[in-house]
Task: inverse folding
């Protein structure tokens, strides 16, 4: 390859198309909910990556031209990022949508009532139906996780009901 090939290889250039670079990035559930910006080091440069609201776990983002450098910019490889999302103690995300677990009293399970869920910076109110069963999943339409690349549209929020039995019953 001569002098040019050695020079190009040493400084990260390829005479052909640059290779794609794979990476993994971990964000919080709140960052996935609202979107975030991250600076990522790729080789000797730092690139700024915008992550849109509603990104899902293990979703891949292809960032054109941010991989290994080619001889010219149009020959640069792509940066392919796999997104890992950290759940919280109160909220978790799966392929169906955003879930939470609510522990309610036996009295609320029998008589019904109102409940609230703190969803990051907002509070969601919901109705507990009368005679709700332990393990029942309530669906709150349009109050869940944002739909990726569809601003203002949210999926459903799933509320998993756990009934707490009283420990000391009296006559």
Result:
């Amino acid at each position: 390859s001569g002098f040019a090939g050695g020079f190009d290889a040493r400084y990260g250039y390829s005479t052909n198309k640059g290779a794609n670079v794979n990476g993994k990035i971990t964000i919080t559930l709140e960052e996935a909910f609202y979107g975030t910006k991250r600076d990522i080091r790729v080789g000797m440069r730092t690139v700024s990556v915008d992550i849109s609201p509603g990104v899902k776990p293990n979703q891949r983002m292809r960032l054109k031209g941010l991989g290994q450098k080619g001889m010219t910019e149009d020959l640069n490889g792509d940066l392919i990022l796999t997104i890992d999302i950290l759940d919280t103690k109160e909220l978790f995300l799966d392929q169906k949508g955003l879930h939470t677990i609510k522990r309610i009293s036996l009295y609320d399970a029998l008589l019904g009532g109102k409940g609230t869920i703190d969803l990051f910076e907002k509070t969601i109110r919901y109705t507990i139906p009368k005679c709700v069963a332990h393990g029942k999943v309530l669906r709150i339409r349009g109050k869940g996780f944002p739909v990726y690349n569809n601003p203002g549209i949210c999926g459903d929020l799933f509320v998993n009901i756990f009934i707490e039995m009283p420990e000391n019953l009296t006559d």
Observations:
- The mean pLDDT is 89.
- Residues 92 and 99 are 5 Å apart (CA to CA).
- The longest helix spans residues 2-10.
- Helices lie at 2-10, 29-34, 106-111.
